[in-house]
């Protein structure tokens, strides 16, 4: 008997969504690791809760409101970093905590609104619906196509930004495009691993793959494979031990990272 055919719908949706996210987050997360953008990802993830609050307040689709919120914040960050009024880490810290707190305040002030805040903070992958799955697959497919199109240019500004600028590449536009791709992934993935854990899936698998990869493409592919293994391991753990799906996936990714550290590099 085909195990996929006998799998409950909610578990099948969770598996498909998790694998799609892992395959997209691997290559994208590689740039997050290379460019040391982990704190930027955290800032966008924290701002996602503000998008949820505004979506509820304005009575619009939460996925749309979160996506718009993350994209607008990414554009704002690029603009503020270009002005160089503050150090980047200081600016990111201010925006991360401010947007998260503002989101919580807006939710608290919203009358007759009751939401499962834990689901948004830590994810609820097993509760994903067919419509959520379609939104995710569409958003992740768009990100994957754009990332493949921009791959060489992103590598150029990552290896040597000044040389890329001298060669005529629009460095600021390419950097903004990367931030927008990260914003879209965070927005569509929030329901899977939650606001507080999304950057873990963008960082841990690429960091694990980096140790044994010899080329950027090997690292991106390895990160996708490790991300898929983390999703499979996390869902198995969640199904058998009744643990939260999102944190279980991150724990599986962390174990894979430890395994990558322990296994000796090839000569």
How would you describe what is shown here?
The protein is mainly alpha-helical and 267 residues long. Helices cover 80% and strands 0% of the residues. It has a single domain (9-262), classed as ABC transporter involved in vitamin B12 uptake, BtuC (Orthogonal Bundle). It has eleven helices and no strands. The longest helix has 30 residues, at 130-159. The chain is globular and about 55 Å long. The model has no long low-confidence stretch (mean pLDDT 84).
What is the H/E string?
HHHHHHHHHHH
State the helix count. Answer: 11
Global morphology: globular
What integer value in Å does the Rg equal? 19 Å
Q: What structural class do the secondary elements suggest?
A: mainly alpha
Give the tally of β-strands: 0
Work out the strand percent: under 5%
What number of structural domains do the residues give? 1
Largest sheet: none
Could you please say which CATH topology applies here? ABC transporter involved in vitamin B12 uptake, BtuC
User: Would you tell me the overall average pLDDT?
Assistant: 84
The H-level CATH homologous superfamily, spelled out, is ABC transporter involved in vitamin B12 uptake, BtuC
Low-confidence stretches: none
CATH class: Mainly Alpha
Helix content: over 70%
Distance between the termini: 44 Å
The assigned CATH architecture is Orthogonal Bundle
């Amino acid at each position: 008997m085909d195990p996929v055919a006998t799998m409950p719908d909610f578990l099948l949706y969770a598996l498909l969504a998790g694998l799609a996210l892992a395959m997209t987050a691997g290559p994208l997360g590689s740039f997050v690791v290379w460019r040391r953008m982990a704190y930027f990802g955290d800032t966008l993830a924290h701002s996602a809760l503000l998008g949820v609050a505004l979506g509820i307040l304005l009575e619009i689709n939460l996925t749309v409101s979160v996506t718009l919120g993350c994209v607008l914040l990414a554009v704002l960050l690029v603009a503020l970093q270009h002005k160089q009024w503050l150090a980047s880490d200081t600016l990111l810290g201010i925006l991360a905590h401010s947007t998260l707190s503002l989101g919580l305040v807006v939710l608290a002030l919203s009358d007759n609104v009751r939401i499962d805040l834990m689901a948004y903070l830590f994810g609820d992958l097993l509760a994903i619906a067919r419509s959520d799955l379609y939104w995710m697959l569409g958003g992740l497919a768009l990100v994957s196509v754009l990332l493949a199109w921009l791959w060489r240019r992103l590598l150029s500004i990552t290896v040597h930004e000044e040389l890329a600028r001298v060669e005529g590449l629009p460095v600021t536009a390419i950097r903004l495009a990367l931030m927008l791709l990260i914003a879209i992934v965070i927005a569509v993935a929030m329901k899977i691993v939650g606001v507080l854990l999304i950057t873990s899936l963008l960082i841990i698998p690429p960091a694990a793959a980096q140790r044994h990869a010899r080329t950027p493409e090997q690292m991106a592919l390895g990160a996708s494979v490790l991300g898929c293994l983390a999703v499979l391991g996390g869902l198995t753990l969640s199904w058998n031990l009744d643990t939260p799906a999102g944190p279980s996936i991150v724990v599986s990714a962390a174990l894979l990272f430890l395994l990558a550290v322990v296994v000796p590099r090839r000569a």
